[in-house]
Write a structure and sequence with these properties.
eight-stranded mixed β-sheet, alpha+beta, about 180 residues
Length: about 180
């Protein structure tokens, strides 16, 4: 099983089908918090709804087309997710997405998780570009790429639909040449 330790006792690990109940439970407990920014939250109504996602993460990993991992607390509970979306190997680029349970925020965990992913993308996969998109109004999500030194490249107007709202998204990017240690 793939596992990567983070500071503070947190870790990243692959999802298993047996995680469906727990993953759904975290999503359900954070439905209002996550639903403001994540369009998929509205379609998660029971544990069976997360099984296709878990299976897709396993296929993605097996096909070398990205990597999605659960963020687990020191006690082993799933508290969030972070992942590299599909990899464009020809152009050596991808993007990172993430979410964290409301009561787990403010500890630097997500910053360290995203840092681990960027390190992996640039040093192991030898990618050239990693992008992160966050809703303009989502200050906590935007703080991650800003803290890690990503460059803000612009705003995509009306790029994502959440319920009946269209959100603008800020695009941040990091190039391998600008990443320390790449």
């Amino acid at each position: 099983m793939l596992r990567h330790e983070l500071p503070g006792g947190y870790a990243l690990r692959l999802l298993e089908e047996a995680d469906a109940d727990e993953l759904f439970g975290v999503i359900d407990a954070n439905r209002e918090h996550l639903g403001r920014w994540m369009p998929w939250v509205a379609s998660e109504h029971e544990p069976a709804d997360v099984l296709p996602f878990i299976r897709a993460t396993r296929r993605q990993f097996a096909d070398n087309d990205g990597l999605q991992t659960a963020i687990v607390a020191p006690d082993g509970r799933i508290v969030g997710m972070v992942g590299v979306h599909n990899v464009d190997w020809m152009n050596r680029k991808s993007s990172i997405g993430y979410w964290l349970a409301r009561d787990e925020q403010g500890r630097g965990t997500m910053t360290e998780a995203v840092r681990a992913y960027v390190d992996h993308a640039f040093t192991t996969w030898k990618l050239n570009r990693i992008a992160i998109q966050a809703a303009v109004e989502n200050a906590r999500s935007r703080a991650i790429p800003e803290r890690l030194g990503f460059r803000e490249e612009g705003i995509l107007r009306g790029v994502e639909r959440i319920g009946d709202r269209m959100l603008d998204g800020v695009v941040y990017a990091m190039l391998a040449a600008d990443w320390p240690g790449a």
